TrEMBL record:
Protein origin, superkingdom: Bacteria
Species per Swiss-Prot/TrEMBL record: Teichococcus rhizosphaerae
SUPFAM superfamilies: Nucleotidylyl transferase
Protein name: tRNA glutamyl-Q(34) synthetase GluQRS
Leader peptide range in chain numbering: none
Length: 285
């Protein structure tokens, strides 16, 4: 018997949902419901500055209004910080993490001194300054209370993970991963005890997600997620990255560009069926 399909919708409550979110949620929901599987809802609110409880409430309200239901309790990431800490401790026990005391200005200075600034999917690649600190200096700085982030030692992680890494992208087949392009990525920030990449990988494994449906802008992140899954011995889900929704002007819909929110569409008199059709139709176009 084939294993049950478990999908999820994992929004960050940094604003109200727009049509792009509705498309993602509907895709995951349909794939679960059509196969007798499970559809989970997870609130990715690890960043207390950008995330707000009223947006979480708005997400639940909008999904219910659209007619989507989910299985089991909603997982709210900010309520599970010990899970992420335990994952960081495992990676640290494998000697794959190091503390990074650099400020943005330190990194900019170092990059200017090197003379070139390679970028990865998350922006500027870290030049590795704190990876080269000696054990005594690290211990002294920590003892002095200097704030630090935790970075993945990418070279060490790649030596440890089986090569080559790949994942199954529905409709495209097996895609090869190149996590090295993230460099020594931050897995716990100075101000936030975990990063998106760490939490999403932890939760997909913990919740038994078998098919990750999300927008294509997260396709590059999957390379890093596969590396973490492999280091931690977690099963890889299948992935289905859907195209980003475009507005009438052909530009991608996003919060930043003032895409109409579901709440605004509702207020303008559109019913749930019409908004569902808009969300699904837009992606086909
Ligand atoms: N929380 C992420 C976002 O809202 C999505 C994470 C994912 O689907 O992997 O962009």
């Amino acid at each position: 018997m084939a294993a049950t399909t478990v999908t999820r919708f994992a929004p960050s409550p940094t604003g109200r949902l727009h049509l792009g979110h509705a498309h993602s949620a509907l895709l995951g929901w349909r794939l679960a419901r059509e196969s007798g599987g499970r559809f989970l809802l997870r609130i990715e609110d690890i960043d207390p500055v950008r995330c707000r409880p009223e947006f979480t409430a708005g997400i639940l309200e909008d999904l219910a209004w659209l007619g989507l239901d989910w299985d089991g309790p909603v997982r709210v990431q900010s309520e599970h910080l010990p899970d992420y800490r335990a994952t960081l401790e495992r990676l640290s026990g494998m000697e794959l993490l190091y503390p990074c005391f650099c400020t943005r200005a330190d990194i900019a200075r170092e990059v200017a001194a090197i003379g070139h600034a390679p970028h990865g999917p998350d922006g500027l690649l870290y030049p590795g300054t704190c990876r080269r600190l000696g054990a005594t200096e690290r211990a002294e700085r920590i003892a002095a209370g200097q704030p630090y982030a935790l970075r993945l030692d990418m070279a060490a992680a790649l030596r440890r993970a089986p090569r080559p890494l790949s994942f199954l992208e529905v409709g495209r087949g097996r895609l090869r991963c190149d996590p090295a392009r993230f460099g020594d990525v931050v897995l716990a920030r100075k101000d936030i005890p975990a990063s998106y990449h760490l939490c999403v990988t932890r939760d997909d494994a913990l919740q038994g997600v078998s098919l990750v449906t999300r927008a294509a802008d997260l396709l590059p992140a999957t390379d890093l997620h596969r590396l973490l899954q492999s280091l931690l011995g977690w099963k890889a889900p299948r992935y289905r990255h859907h195209p980003l929704l475009l507005g009438a002007d052909g530009r991608r819909l996003s919060k930043r560009d003032n895409a109409p929110t579901l709440a605004a569409l509702r207020e303008a008199g559109h019913g749930p069926a019409a908004v569902r059709a808009m969300a699904e139709g837009a992606a086909r176009g």
